[in-house]
């Protein structure tokens, strides 16, 4: 029995993970013969960490996903130019063809350049922020003190802006909408974020209408010029669907796939940013990796009952000194009738916390400057565990257990309070011992063994002894 | 401590500084306990020693004739002295010639041991004296609750305590930072902190280059676990992960210590490797005043795993499949190397095989109570009942002696001489303080009596502990845990001897790794490990995580501590800690009797509402027997390397007791 031929078009986050998952399930290549095609010259790298490369916390060599041994497993510098679905073969940039039993499209997405006069990827000083090579270009141009414009105030733009301001650039975020990250944040949260960024030295221009780009000058806005030696374009991405379109495969915003990661041609699959599944949004590594795992189960035959049902979307900004999480339905207002909505808005301290609850479950949340709440609420959202009834504690993230409430003084301490844990000695036992003649800390210790374990209750026992000496 | 009659007095000693917890203070009560076993029992009836031993020897011979050498099995304990652990291993290999021996330490420290061996080439719980901790600025304590399980130890934790535990334990209450990962996600957390260490520029690159190997492969996995991703899996905020990285890196002296909470998982070995990787990236192991260590769980947890009661081991921490080790040890024992059996089944696999067509038909148990302490306890009970012969040597009745054909009453701690190796690898000599009851014999005497009845010369099984120790020391010579320079005389003189002690002139080795690690090239190893998650995750039918642990007043299966009135008063019955909302949704409130149920069994436990619990998690102590035995729930999914069962996480549901 010969293994099935699988061709993977794309060696980014999705394609690389799919290859790993195949090898994990079929290390000897008995079930599947893999051909992986990567357009870039690099071994696969972790795109999520590129903002770290721009911020300087990572070097390019630290973000590779695969070791040198992968050079033998991947064909780098080639990509698919044509799919012949009838003959079940693909043509490559070098003119060769490869037949397939199954084709996996993992072609990713590319940066979208808004139609602005003078703004093109080729124009001097214009950089997209998508690949490792993009990072190299940005870093080379990011001279300390230089003015930089970041065009697009979404997640990626803010991460880039934070990284570049940390390198000493003078950064302006230019955003065409009335608040930052408008897909993930409501208006008030957007304001808190903008405040935070300006505290860190990032200027923010909202509702900006960009009329043109002049190399050497910067971006021309309705109300004046944003000076920029460099423009980093982070205005969004488009799924890379051209191959699929030409092959007559159904494409909407991305290549349309079902729960088996199949396109409209069941022998052709799509995963990652190029794909469009109703259960998730494009551009998230978590979805891409989960899709890769399911598809590997299906194509190796390890678990043909596996299905991909979608990935709940949690947005988490990775920018030093800005802690931001957003998930689910964020736009429901506090006046909504069909949901419990809690909101804490503290722009002065850079904090914003909003929690939307439906049927006792987290339906959405925005959390800025509330890292503990973000962690807890994300877990409640993912696991669908009912939200604890102490909603305020959940929103604040630092629930003080009621049993840990400190007592004001030894007199107020309840009789059954455990004073010495090591020897299970309560306040009542100490009081009894005192009244039967153990009237010093040493005598209390030998009568009850309190303080003779780890010794950490010594202060408490001294306090009780002092209190007893004044009351009896 | 010292004894006056059965009255305990604490003694100044580096590990506990004269402190005792309630178990220590009341340990004298065991010596005079009315439940003490004082006569051999055959099918529940008191008989003479000869009757009992003759019966056992005859049945052993019968079983081995019918089913082969491996028809008999031995199950030991981490509470046995070094001498007994050694003699038990030798008894299995020389007198029974069975490969089927393992011990309850497999349920205790085997994951940390396996990970320590991989990383450092040696496994000594703490490769430094415990008093070194006094000068630490930061201690990261992972899955340990010493404020309850080892209270005097807390005296060494002066400041800068960071605790990793899904529960807000007594230890966590004292921490300056408490991380509460979801059960079964510690490995991801370790990767997230390692990621932070590296990306924040805290990695010790010179140390990594000169003292270790394998960083690049370990990093490539950690690179995929950026803190925000780890947060989603663990519930520990990215901010806290970075804070831990910073605190560890900025500390002058820092330690990472692990214990059962992070080790008792089907991925326990990998999880400990992840914590060690973190320690190595920070350059802690082998740096004076810093390091990695693991906290020992049983009195002789360290020594108990060094001298041959483990299925794959010979004395001196040698491997039983190493031809040179076999030849050397066989020489000491005066037997043909080829007569020594090979590696046998690990603890749970051994218990699971009992009474099956290809499994052992007879079992000797020394110093363990697997009916309560093994995972999937009801199943283990059924396997024990399927045996043709069950012999248990112990000093108080327990749930396992209740199933035994023969119960042999043996000496306990204050009645016998012997050595223990503590958590820092220091060998301690224990003097006898009391005479045992007249008809009680020592385990060493029992082994000699059985061995001679099975045709082995009596001199192969000395009954004087010092003679056994001298033989053990010879057998360990040249091994990893080399005791050959240790003598009772040196110990009686009060020398603090940490192994290895390769000669009688050698001062011992309080601190390992200061110059080199124990791998041939002297370098420590990063082990590339990835997070997989618990073997059984909550689902619609069993929506909650259950985790298990100890309480202060009890020890292990409770066989000893449940006999002491004062301790029973302090912790009388099993309970389940649960978030008040979770209790309410299950129709329960504080003090109600709950049914906690997993795919493997159900447990009755009193509800304790604790608002600091994660709403998706319940906790049960494992010390209680029968319908209260938490191990009726636990999952016997095994770690592929250490064969540790997954005690610390399984999926359960909660209901009022009596609901069907």
UniProtKB/TrEMBL annotation, chain A:
Pfam families: Fer2_BFD (PF04324), Pyr_redox_2 (PF07992), Rubredoxin_C (PF18267). The keyword Iron applies. The keyword Flavoprotein applies. It comes from the Bacteria. Residues 314-380 form the NADH-rubredoxin oxidoreductase C-terminal domain. Its cofactor is siroheme; FAD; [4Fe-4S] cluster. Residues 5-291 form the FAD/NAD(P)-binding domain. Keywords: FAD, Flavoprotein, Heme, Iron, Iron-sulfur, Metal-binding, Oxidoreductase. Pathway: Nitrogen metabolism; nitrate reduction (assimilation). Signal peptide: none annotated. Residues 418-461 form the BFD-like [2Fe-2S]-binding domain. Gene3D superfamilies: 3.30.390.30, BFD-like [2Fe-2S]-binding domain, FAD/NAD(P)-binding domain. PANTHER family: NITRITE REDUCTASE (NADH) LARGE SUBUNIT. Belongs to the nitrite and sulfite reductase 4Fe-4S domain family. This is Electron transfer subunit of assimilatory nitrate reductase.
